[in-house]
Amino acid sequence: MSPTEPQPSDVPVPDEPLLTVTGLRKAFGQHEVLKSIDLEVRRGEVVTLIGPSGSGKTTVLRCLNGLEVPDAGVAEFAGQLTVDFATPVAKKQVLALRDRSAMVFQHYNLFPHKTVLENVIEGPVQVQKRPKAEAIQEARDLLARVGLTGKENSYPFELSGGQQQRVGIVRALALRPQLLLFDEPTSALDPELVGEVLAVIKELADEGWTMVVVTHELAFARQVADEVIFMDGGVVVERGHPDTVLRDPREERTRQFVDRLLNPF
Amino acid sequence: MSINWELVWSSLGPLLTGAIFGTIPLALASFSLGLLLALVVALMRLSRNRLVSAVARTYISVIRGTPLLVQLFVIFYGLPSVGITISPWPSAIIAFSLNVGGYAAEVIRAAILSVPKGQWEAGHTIGMSRRQTLVRIILPQAARVSVPPLSNTFISLVKDTSLASLILVTELFRVAQQVAAFSQEFMLLYLEAAVIYWIICLVLASGQSALEKRLDRYVAH
User: Fold this and answer.
1) Mean pLDDT score across all residues of chain A
2) What is this structure's pTM?
3) Do B127 and A103 touch (CB under 8 A)?
């Protein structure tokens, strides 16, 4: 890896927690979406969140990226930053939390009026104020790594879903985040395009990037995840090594969910 | 009825002069100022601050709820009685800009709202502020959506500038009235004026489709 490319969270130090979240709560009106969630992500670790729709797993990601402001809970980032969501200053601190992570959306959310290259350098140049030439070079390298050389000047609508999502991933990487957040990154894709996107994510995991992935792809979770968290109704029902949670879960609800996903008929 | 071609030919000069130095600059100036105003009003209308949004709402309601001719007369003939005298040209520009501002504000507001919420979130997630996201991500996409309805507003405005003849602005229609009164050829002169308005609007409509094509890459297909 060349020095201009983003380094995955310095040198991965195993066992050192990068992000610790405790007592995360969020309600939309009367509806309690998250009822006290605890989460710990160590450097270089891949945590996958699984669970039925409406279980709150996407809301967890959105809270970590500051797209939602939780009602309560504490997030601690590698000892550098502690945000207590119950305090009024949390709204400002949430932005600092956002700076440390980058989000990949289910529907890509690329900017349709910008080319692939412009999509990728928008954050580095406009927000992080990095030199444009350097950002372009880095963007080209990252695009090459996900197999998108030659697409720099294409517009998103000219690309397949799988290509668009790979641009989405590169746009996140270009921010040089310490933590990557994936919100059902393959759920909007045609089945034959899922593989190419999962392959990129797996490669990033192998390189040592720290990530939290919300997914319905159990085979992917089994292969890549260090920890699987099963959520239902706004609480964590079960967590542990993928072999345990996905093959031999302790909880009945987990077993039912995994069965339904593996045998839909 | 035989057509007095000599009069058509001799009046064409004055009428075109009225269009080029009256109608067109009046429409361009009012539309530009009106659009700026409309953008501000649209953003005020979308503001979370209830007072700000109520001010914008009231403004839009008054502009859309009263005739343009009345607005024009209030500014030119009404204001002098409270000590504010504005000459014909500025009066016309003020009235037309305020009018465009009210109508176009709703167009721009709707265009902004038509951009998917995910675009705001994508802007925020790469670290942009609300303002940055609005300017760099949302407005360019809203612009494409608002071209057809704003073209409508512009075309209406071009025709509405004929009302300025009633506050003594020398523009296309006022020239036509003067020549008609002098020559007593009312039908001929008013039809001639109508044809010139029509040609201006045809040019604008073709400009609209060119602009739409150019901005087409700005929307998802």
Assistant:
1) 90
2) 0.86
3) no
pLDDT in tens, B129-143: 999 999 999 999 999
> For residue A52, which phi and psi values (nearest 5 degrees)?
-65, 160
Band of pLDDT at residue A95, cut at 50, 70 and 90 = confident
pLDDT category of residue A251 using cuts at 50, 70 and 90: very high
DSSP state of A86: T
The three-state secondary structure class of A240 is strand
At residue A51 the predicted structure's pLDDT band, cuts being 50, 70 and 90, is very high
Q: Is it the case that residue A7 has pLDDT exceeding 60?
A: no
Distances in Å between the alpha carbon of B127 and those of A50, A67, A122, A250, B134? 27, 11, 10, 41, 13
CA A194 centroid distance within chain: 16
Contact yes or no for A127 and B137 at CB 8 A: no
Q: Does B139 contact A at CB distance below 8 Å?
A: no
- Is beta strand A72-77 parallel, antiparallel or unpaired with respect to A179-183? unpaired
Is the CB of residue B111 less than 8 Å from the CB of residue B142? yes
Q: What DSSP character marks residue A241?
A: -
**H, E, C per residue of B155-220:** HHHHHHHHHHHHHCCCCHHHHHHHHHHHHCCHHHHHHHHHHHHHHHHHHHHHHHHHHHHHHHHHCC
Would the pLDDT of A2 be above 80?
A: no
Decide if pLDDT at A72 tops 60: yes
Residue in chain B closest to A61 (alpha carbons) equals B125
Residue A69 near residue A91, CB atoms below 8 Å? yes
Give CA–CA dist B17/B2, Å, rounded: 26
Asked if A105 reaches chain B (Cβ–Cβ under 8 Å), the answer is: yes
Q: Which residues in chain A have their CB less than 8 angstroms from residue B144's CB? A: 113
Give B-chain residues touching A111 at CB under 8 angstroms: 119, 122, 137
**Sign of the dihedral defined by the CA atoms of residues B59, B64, B68, B74, in that order:** negative
A191-195: long-range contacts (C-beta < 8 A, 24 or more apart)? A193/A160, A193/A161, A193/A162, A194/A162
Q: Which residues of B touch A122 (CB under 8 A)?
A: 126, 136
A175–B126: do the CB atoms touch at under 8 Å?
yes
Among all chains, which residue has been given the structure tokens 């007593």?
A: B184
User: pLDDT tens digits for B4-18?
Assistant: 888 988 999 999 999
A109, A127, A128 member nearest B122 (Cβ): A109
Assign A3 a pLDDT band (cuts: 50, 70, 90).
Answer: very low
Average pLDDT over residues A153-180: 95
Backbone φ and ψ for B52, nearest 5 degrees, come out as: -60, -45
Is A171 an interface residue toward B (CB < 8 Å)?
A: yes
Tell how strand A179-183 and strand A211-214 pair up.
parallel
